[in-house]
Amino acid sequence: MSEAAPKSVLALRERTPLPPALVLAIFFHLVIFAAAFYLPRLLDRPPPMRKPIIAKLVALGKPRDKSLLPRKESPPPAAAAAPVAAPGGKAAPSTAHVPTRRELMERALAHAAGRAASEEKPDEERAGQKTGSPQGTAESSEAGDVYFTAVHDAILENYVVPSVISERERLYLSATVLAYIGGDGRILRHDLQKKSGNPFFDQALETAIRRAKLPPPPPELARSLRDNGVVLNFKP
Amino acid sequence: MMILLAILLAADRPVIDLSGGRIQAYPLALARPLGAQETAAVQSVLQADFDRSGIFKLLDPASFLAPASEGLTQIDYSKWMAIGAQGLVKMSCEAAAEVKCDLRLYDVPRAQELLHGSYSAPRAGVRQIAHRFGDDVVKFFTQEPGVFQTRMAYVRESESGKQIVVADSDGFGPQALTGASINLLPSWAPDGKTIAFTSFRDGAGAHLYTVDVTSKQVRPLVTTGDFATGASYAPDGLRFLFSSSLEDNTDVYLSQNDGSGRRRLTDSRGIDISGAWSPDAKRIAFISDRAGTPQIYTMAADGSDVRRLTFQGNYNQEPAWSPKGDLIAFSGRDEHRIFDLYTVNVESGKVTRLTQNQGTNEKPSWSPNGRYVVFSSTRGGKRQLWMTAFDGSNQRQITSEHVGASDPAWGPLPAK
């Protein structure tokens, strides 16, 4: 006669796997919640980013003979506006405004437009924008390109790299910032996602972001820029 | 799934690449000196060093808001921040048999001390205290050695001749090492103890000599042949290049540092002169007119693998290889028949102009950290030494010799 060994209470309880139906139910609930949260954002995504067009204005002159030693590059032209005398006879502060690339482009286009206007009459039937240029070729512009170019220029205007960073180090420095932009153009917050390793460089780009005055984003980008932000890759 | 969605969202963020920020000198305030009156002398030298460096923008003391009584360590950063200071230097000295100075560098936006040094020197050497602290500051920021403590050799021109002179890198304290016969083209040995130069002192043409910087003792180096000129020491100091017509034509020769074991490196129908070592001693830049006009060429250290480097201009001379290895500075004659300074990128061959429309500019010599070039210029009337940053910015006069100064050679970093 044999007597079975006593089993513990825990051992007596057999493990019962979750019914497959319950697992499926949990999974589908998760999917539904996730879809409810993310689908509106996915469907409301901004158009794919296009890189801002970087253009250089070439100085007026004739091409230099390539067999000659080079000349020094001319400094950019001084701002045309003379300092305005403030009320009370005091001169306005002499902080020279450095024109942004956009301003230079606009000046050049305005200059070119003035010359073109005297040469030929524009086609009155041509579709375009009231703020467009006589040299333009497209009916409309893409809001994404224009806005991100404006962001680029606004930050670049305040982007000052201190000379204490050696030119050799400048070759390798880079940092990434994630910036969230409010509906009024204010930078709501920014995260330094990848530091450069040089505190003076990191400080310089934080200053550039803090001082930049961005225009309000177009409505179709506003939500994405507020919630998802924009990635800013800095190099000296 | 949610993680996947989050990754997808992150990947779709717009990206803006920003580069080409304006390079701006670092705004630095030198606070009013504290302690003994020697502090003012230290500050004066330090101010000139920082100003010449082009790295710092010194703030006008008239704009300072902090009280003169502000101590060395109790700092009201908001008052310095208000005037735009990023860095702040405080100093205090005590003078007895020797001068002891406490110098500190602060980061104003972060309100923290970056550097703190105690320096001492005999009363006659207070300038060295400033130079040492200045070099420490430059090293702290740029991770490159500063050059305020270095010296320069050059040729002092006088009514009676040309003598080899050594002075501090700011032109202070010139000391003649030779008499006033015709002495030219000084070249430092890498240990900074001797200088080779070309001289007509023996009355039999130009030959090479060395002079001990401390004892001023002159020794012959190469005195054979019609002429031997333009010594240039290898970075190891064991060999030197020179130009000579030992074998009928003028070529670049290599010799042991005692003048023995001479070997011809170039062999062309043209004139080959002005050999200059690359910092790794693997290649040599030189001037040759083998293609019709003087141009810069490079060759391997054994004379093989000759390559032409410059193709612009019709009279390029005096190559000097940057200690960083990337650029060769030279003087070239432009279409107005005026010599100016240029650099050529060793890899790309791109030529960049450093001087323009400011007299004749010749004989470039690099600072040991590769950041500056010293040269001679007639822009002020008399030929004097000037220095510039490697990109042609921040040009400053170094010497004020009565008749003139030429042929500069920037000395090595001081031994530690």
Fold and architecture overview:
The complex is a heterodimer of chains A (236) and B (416). Chain A has 236 residues and is of the alpha+beta class. Chain A has helices at 9-12, 20-43, 101-119, 143-157, 167-170, 199-211, 219-227, and strands at 160-162, 175-181, 187-194, 230-234. Chain A contains 7 helices and 4 strands; from the N terminus they run H-H-H-H-E-H-E-E-H-H-E. In chain A, a hairpin with a 5-residue loop joins strand 2 and strand 3 (187-194). The longest helix of chain A is centred in the N-terminal third of the chain and has 24 residues, at 20-43. Chain B is mainly beta. Helices cover 12% and strands 45% of the residues of chain B. Chain B has 4 helices and 32 strands. Chain B has helices at 2-11, 38-53, 77-82, 126-142; strands at residues 15-18, 22-24, 26-30, 34-35, 56-58, 87-95, 98-107, 112-122, 151-158, 161-168, 175-176, 183-188, 194-199, 207-212, 218-222, 228-233, 239-247, 249-256, 263-264, 272-277, 283-288, 295-300, 307-308, 316-321, 327-333, 339-345, 351-353, 361-366, 372-380, 382-389, 396-397, 404-410. In chain B, strands 3, 4, 5, 6, 7 and 8 form a 6-stranded mixed beta sheet that branches. A 4-stranded antiparallel beta sheet of chain B has the order 11-10-9-32, with no helix packed on it. Chain B has a 4-stranded antiparallel beta sheet with strand order 12-13-14-15, with no helix packed on it. In chain B, a hairpin with a 6-residue loop joins strand 21 (283-288) and strand 22 (295-300). The longest helix of chain B is centred in the N-terminal third of the chain and has 17 residues, at 126-142. Chain B starts with a helix and ends in a 6-residue tail after the last strand. Residues 1-9 of chain B have low confidence and may be disordered. The chains are: A alpha+beta (236), B mainly beta (416). Chains A and B meet through helix 2, helix 4, strand 1, helix 5 and helix 6 of A and helix 1, strand 1, strand 2 and strand 27 of B.
